Amino acid sequence: MKASLLIALLAFVSSSAQAGSGGAAAQKAEVCAACHGADFNTPISEDIPRLAGQYPDYLARAMTDYKSGVRKNALMNGQAEGLSAQDIEELSAYIGALPGNLKILPLHRFIR
């Protein structure tokens, strides 16, 4: 009896610690990683953005815009459709906190 209670308590503490360290968000992000890469730095093609290290508020806005249809992309509109506001917040915080490998383009490329 004591052993099973101890095992149950340890399982609960372990799952709570995992959820607190991004466990739930990491699980939700697995579907995103299929295209954006497991580390969110190595997308499957050049036209898919790297997301790790991006500003969480930018990510949240993009996902919210995909969800509402303001931003158009057949795949992303479908993926964002089922996300709640809390899902978007958690995913944005999780992905934004990952070590990023974003490209910084020189300003002179935009000034002509």
From TrEMBL:
Residues 17-99 form the Cytochrome c domain. It comes from the Bacteria. GO terms for molecular function: electron transfer activity; heme binding; metal ion binding. InterPro entries: Cyt_c-like_dom, Cyt_c-like_dom_sf, Cytochrome_c_Oxidase_Subunit. Residues 1-19 form the signal peptide. Keywords: Electron transport, Heme, Iron, Metal-binding, Signal, Transport. Pfam families: Cytochrom_C. SUPFAM superfamilies: Cytochrome c. This is Cytochrome c4. It comes from Candidatus Accumulibacter appositus.
